[in-house]
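Protein 1 of 2
SEQ + STRUCT:
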Amino acid sequence: MKCSWWQVAKIKVNIAYLRWVQASLTRTLNDKQSMLEIQQLARTDDNYMVHLYFEVGIIKTRIKALSERLYEQRARLS
């Protein structure tokens, strides 16, 4: 089954968006002021940091899966 160029474009957009979200979360985790705010939130919610790092892991997994799918779609186009 052959795929269309728009399916490949849609996957590329999804990957770009997820990479942007991942970069944004990483910047937040690396920023001292943001980390102070996160620590304050973590004091009220014990699982806050766990959820934050879990979200980063989910995004990385989705990027990997979409990248593999993009590779497959490109192979079908050729």
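Protein 2 of 2
SEQ + STRUCT:
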Amino acid sequence: MKPAQSAEIKELEDQLRAQLGTKVTLNHKRKGGTVVIHYYSDEELNALAEKLLTD
């Protein structure tokens, strides 16, 4: 992975973290990747679901 891509991915993680209010990890690979959204309680999961599913 190029350093510029790493900085871009880190910035996107930070933006997602700020928007969702929890730790977000992006595992970027050449042809895709995964987004991991961390939560630490049932209440946090419910709040995340509400944020993600609300128009």
